[in-house]
Write a structure and sequence with these properties.
Layout (H helix, E strand, L loop, with lengths): L1 E5 L6 H22 L7 H4 L6 E8 L1 H12 L7 E5 L14 E6 H10 L4 H16 L8 H17 L6 H7 L9 E3 L2
Parallel strand pairs: 1-2, 2-4, 3-5
Antiparallel strand pairs: 3-4
Length: 186
């Protein structure tokens, strides 16, 4: 079972309502993600606890730039960064998260406007996208992986009442690959 957990925090008034709405949808998203297969090597799958907690933090663009620079050597903002702790050599205790997702609230708001979504819906899209990366999905690995990740995103997002998905946006873009969203190695 997967459980997405939103970190407690104070958010600017203009996003607090969307954050509260995201929090209400996390159980449905978690259940939908739990029904999906993990796409990890066997050694990493063995480390998945009965309930796999994945933390979500909504951060400022300034913090996102620092993280993206530190972990991906890209000195710019991005919408979402994911960190999987299943990749490390050490064991995980059942109470430890298997990964974390960081979402830029400014980037999420801009993308919500660009894609005619509510901010809550965009936060759901980014949370699902990040969780799938923690689960081993990688849309940048191959066209087949992109398709698999897109199908998984759609399935999880439908449970939250959101149409589309982040990988579906890649298909609508030009042939040049999008590089602003990747699983960060941490």
């Amino acid at each position: 079972m997967i459980k997405l957990v939103l970190a407690a925090g104070k958010y600017p008034a203009d996003i607090q309502i969307a954050v509260n709405s995201l929090k209400k949808r996390l159980n449905k998203i978690s259940n939908a993600l739990s029904a999906l297969a993990w796409r990890l090597p066997p050694a990493q799958k063995k480390k998945i606890p009965g309930t796999a907690h994945i933390g979500i933090q909504i951060i400022t663009d300034r913090v996102m730039v620092k993280m993206n620079t530190q972990y991906r050597d890209i000195p710019a903002t991005t919408d979402v960064l994911s960190f999987s702790y299943l990749e490390s050599g050490g064991p995980l205790f059942p109470h430890e998260p298997v990964g974390e997702i960081y979402i830029s609230h400014r980037k999420a708001a801009a993308q919500a406007r660009e894609n005619n979504l509510t901010l809550t819906d965009e936060l759901c899209v980014l949370a699902v996208h990040g969780a799938l990366h923690v689960m081993g999905y990688d849309h940048e690995r191959s066209p087949g992986e992109n398709t698999a990740m897109h199908k998984a995103e759609v399935r999880a997002l439908v449970a939250a009442g959101v149409a589309g998905g982040l990988t579906g946006r890649y298909r609508q873009m030009s042939a040049s690959p999008r590089t602003s969203t990747r699983t960060a190695k941490g």
